[in-house]
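Try it yourself: sequence plus phosphoric acid mono(formamide)ester, in.
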Amino acid sequence: MAAAVAARIRHFISLADLTPSELAGLIADAAALKREPVPPDAPLRGRSLAMIFEKPSLRTRVSFEMGMVHLGGHATYLSPAEVGLGRRESVADVARVVSRYVDLVVLRTFAHETTEEFARFSAVPVVNGLSDVSHPCQGLTDIFTIQERKGSAPGIVVAYVGDGNNVCHSLMLAVALAGQTIRVAAPDGYEPQGRTRSAAAAIARGTRATIDVVRDPRDAVRGADVVYTDVWTSMGQEQEYERRRRAFQGYQVNADLLRLAKPDAVVMHDLPAHRGEEITDDVMDGPQSVVFDQAENRLHAQKALVRWLMGVAR
Ligand code: CP
Ligand code: NVA
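Structure, out:
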């Protein structure tokens, strides 16, 4: 629908697509939208977005959809069975067609390359709503939540315990852009991938952030302000469940591990959680947990993102 020149379109495929000041602007706008969720001027009146998902979703789907309602626009959802990206029709052709109808596309794919390919052929901005490599909408929300709870001081330490997966990658990039510290503890063979580590290190050189990957969860959590975990088996890895469950023994966020963090540390999880695996019930439901506030923040952060990508100034 938008007559943008392809080369000038800003996509949101990775947090590395943002500069530190763009991230700071989105965080400020998310906070403003949290204070005033339904702006009276309906800034996205007449605008629309499509969600094309190859995997299930609760938070991502509903928060984008309701975010558009709040901003005066409309969202449509296409389930895995409906589009058949790359099977019923080529990725490029779906991109060419859908971008004639809507102003923005949110994609949730198995292969990250599918989202990259879609973006090359899309005439409107493309948002990565989770791929096997990254989950930037989650990372954006996470850094907003961290700064809401702990501020933006460089001394803030985020500990991530578990799989060096899509959520971990985006959290690393977000913390790097914010100039804070992240310590990732992952078992042998499940560390964050080299490409994301290099990208985070490159950003960190400019922002003076610190990115560490360690083996022992206690080394990550000791003295941390935030303790973060995610599932050991992500969507699409179900056949690896038993092997992963064995590999991640000792990487559970439980009361013993949490005791090593600062007494006022907050516990985060992107959800859905596999209670009793990567996190215990008492920690997830305990006083330090902010997981449901974090889930709510998807709404505020993504509204800021959509407004920015659609070029509708605050
Ligand atoms: N955290 C997250 O992306 O949740 P959904 O998979 O439910 O969208
Ligand atoms: N790492 C998880 C995140 C779900 C929001 C997955 O990819 O399944």
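One thing you can check immediately is this: The domain at 136-294 is CATH 3.40.50.1370 (Rossmann fold).
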